């Protein structure tokens, strides 16, 4: 996946974290450079896997020094671009960490506009290994009750990541503090992406705890089955607004005996409440399996609701692909034609084929090359040049040996 640069932000006359007299860098020069980079990125052709020819250099490698020059002049958007594009710019792990240690302090020194602080806090999350616990507290605490919901939720989320993920600070006390911060971020009205990320962190942590508790129970280390207790915790988290927790409940529906109609109703409600959140891409990927397990009447309405509620982005791409496979594998001929249209839209949306075969062939594979389906008939010749059809061997044990040279 190609990395895109931070969009140009027009600084509005709203709340600042710094004084009114703090210097502001006009975004014109950054905007011109960002637009030039976007054009180069659009023209960039990623190398094919296992390509023997010399690889084309990623545009981020070429543009990095120019963005570094702008960052040195105090342009925060340039610093954010660098932090976001360190990997495509070709920097190794140690160099990425050193660059983050260099750029992050300036972003939290007081002169970064409030409009850029959510992006700065997200980069703090991404580069948590580059900072100490006390430094994270120093930067985030003044922003925890910021007037902007996006800034407040971002600070809560970033500080939670710094406390929970730093290898030097793993403890029950810090884990509890991180969970409390994430829960606050989840409940911030208008917290946007930070609140959604906090929901994901809380759910992932709880899911890891559940998996560990299940292992202990299955190995006889504890006598009490942990499922009932964890089920209540996931329910409480979902009721607090964590969409990923609601998806976990659907994916573990056997724990509370949720039947097909219950899954359909709960799934539709989950999509309506969290349309566009990233975790729904995982739900979309489950559609073919749910069609197999629960039936087309349950899975297809979920895919359709996703397509109705999400107009673009990775979630829509996943929904197009999941619904196409679902209809092709479990639907009738008309639904298979609908699947082809969905797959073609998916190809157009992501700008590349998701498979090494054309959409028509992929639909054929989904419909026919599945366990339990009758193998498609074909005609060929044996080693003596005698023509035969696969159907002539129906009722007999047949071994097909496909081979070739590469």
Care to describe what's here?
This protein has 406 residues and is mainly alpha-helical. The chain has three domains: 1-8 and 21-46 and 53-112, no CATH class; 129-258; 260-375. Strands 1-2 form a two-stranded antiparallel ribbon. 34% of the residues are buried. Helix 14 packs antiparallel against helix 15. It contains 17 helices and two strands. A hairpin with a 5-residue loop joins strand 1 and strand 2.
SS content category: mainly alpha
The percent range for strand residues is under 5%
Distance between the termini: 27 Å
CA radius of gyration is 26 Å
| Major sheet | 2 strands, antiparallel
Question: What overall form do the CA principal axes indicate?
Answer: globular
What are the SSEs and their pairings?
Elements: H1 28-43, H2 59-72, H3 76-84, H4 93-107, H5 117-126, H6 133-140, H7 149-165, H8 172-186, H9 192-218, H10 227-239, H11 243-251, H12 260-274, H13 280-294, H14 296-309, H15 313-330, H16 333-350, H17 359-368, E1 379-381, E2 387-389
Antiparallel strand pairs: 1-2
Produce a short descriptive summary:
The protein is an all-alpha fold and 406 residues long.
């Amino acid at each position: 996946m190609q990395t895109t640069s931070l969009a140009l932000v027009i600084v509005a006359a709203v709340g600042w974290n710094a004084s009114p007299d703090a210097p502001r860098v006009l975004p014109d020069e950054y905007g011109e450079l960002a637009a030039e980079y976007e054009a180069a990125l659009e023209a960039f052709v990623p190398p094919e896997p296992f390509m023997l020819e010399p690889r084309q250099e990623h545009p981020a490698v070429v543009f990095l020094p120019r963005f570094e020059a702008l960052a040195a002049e105090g342009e925060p958007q340039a610093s954010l671009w660098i932090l976001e594009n360190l990997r495509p710019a070709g920097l190794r792990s140690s160099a990425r960490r050193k660059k983050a240690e260099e750029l992050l302090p300036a972003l939290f020194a007081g002169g970064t506009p409030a409009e850029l602080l959510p992006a700065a806090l997200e980069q703090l999350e991404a580069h948590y290994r580059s900072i100490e616990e006390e430094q994270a507290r120093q930067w985030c605490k003044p922003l925890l009750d910021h007037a902007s919901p996006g800034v407040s939720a971002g600070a809560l989320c970033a500080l939670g990541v710094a406390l929970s993920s730093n290898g030097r600070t793993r403890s029950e006390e810090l884990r509890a503090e991180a969970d409390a911060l994430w829960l606050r971020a989840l409940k911030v009205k208008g917290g946007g992406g930070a609140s959604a990320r906090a929901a994901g962190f809380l759910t992932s942590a709880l899911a890891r705890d559940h998996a560990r508790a299940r292992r202990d129970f299955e190995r006889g280390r504890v006598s009490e089955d942990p499922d009932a207790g964890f089920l209540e915790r996931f329910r409480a988290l979902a009721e607090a607004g964590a969409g990923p927790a609601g998806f976990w409940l659907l994916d573990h529906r056997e724990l509370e005996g949720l039947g097909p109609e219950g899954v359909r109703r709960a799934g539709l409600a989950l999509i309506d409440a969290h349309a566009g959140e990233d975790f729904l891409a995982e739900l979309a990927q489950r559609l073919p399996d749910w069609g197999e397990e629960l039936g087309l009447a349950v899975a297809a309405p979920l895919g359709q609701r996703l397509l109705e509620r999400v107009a673009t982005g990775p979630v829509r791409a996943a929904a197009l692909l999941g619904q196409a496979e679902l209809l092709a594998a479990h639907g009738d001929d008309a639904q298979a034609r609908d699947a082809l249209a969905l797959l073609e839209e998916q190809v157009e949306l992501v700008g590349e084929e998701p498979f090494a075969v054309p959409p028509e062939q992929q639909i054929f594979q989904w419909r026919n090359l599945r366990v339990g389906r009758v193998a498609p008939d074909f005609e060929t010749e044996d080693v003596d040049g005698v023509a035969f059809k696969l159907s002539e061997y129906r009722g007999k044990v047949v071994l097909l040996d496909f081979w070739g040279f590469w």
